[in-house]
Amino acid sequence: MAVPTSLVAAGGLVGGYGVARWTKKRPLGGVALAAAGALAAKQWKNTAGTGAAAGLSGLYVAAFAGSHPLAKKVGAWPSVLGVSAAVALASWVVERNSSSATS
């Protein structure tokens, strides 16, 4: 059974931050973030098509980048969890609508 892409993407954002924070090695967190993002992009392409994959991948990168200034206002973990939830929700909606359209 495949892991839902929404969880892969959210897990990549949360996991990337967690790895970077706990190991104190930001590049290692970046590896986790990139690996999950690549896996999610592949799954998005397979389930929703190239356009949706490009859009959701862009959102994934924007969420990562946007979490930094947001963290200055609300704190690091709330920021990471918030952007992760937004990406997960967007992924779920896009994939759900794509599978409904092809059924």
Beta percentage is under 5%
Counted by DSSP, the helix tally is: 4
- General shape: globular
Q: Please describe the biggest sheet, giving its number of strands, its sense, and whether it closes into a barrel.
A: none
Low-pLDDT regions = none
Span between termini = 20 Å
Structural class, by secondary structure, is mainly alpha
Q: Secondary-structure element order, as H and E?
A: HHHH
Helix content class: over 70%
Number of E-type strands? 0
Q: In the residues, how many domains can be counted?
A: 1
Spatial extent as radius of gyration: 14 Å
| Overall pLDDT level | 95
Task: Please describe the structure with a list of short key phrases separated by commas or semicolons.
Integral membrane protein, mainly alpha, 103 residues
Topology:
Elements: H1 5-23, H2 26-48, H3 50-74, H4 76-102
Helix pairs in contact: 1-2, 1-4, 2-3, 3-4
Protein name: Integral membrane protein
Organism: Streptomyces hesseae
Question: Overview of this structure, please?
Answer:
This protein is an all-alpha fold and 103 residues long. The protein has one domain (5-102). The chain is 91% helix and 0% strand. It has helices at 5-23, 26-48, 50-74, 76-102. The radius of gyration is 14 Å and the shape is globular. It comes from Streptomyces hesseae. This is Integral membrane protein.
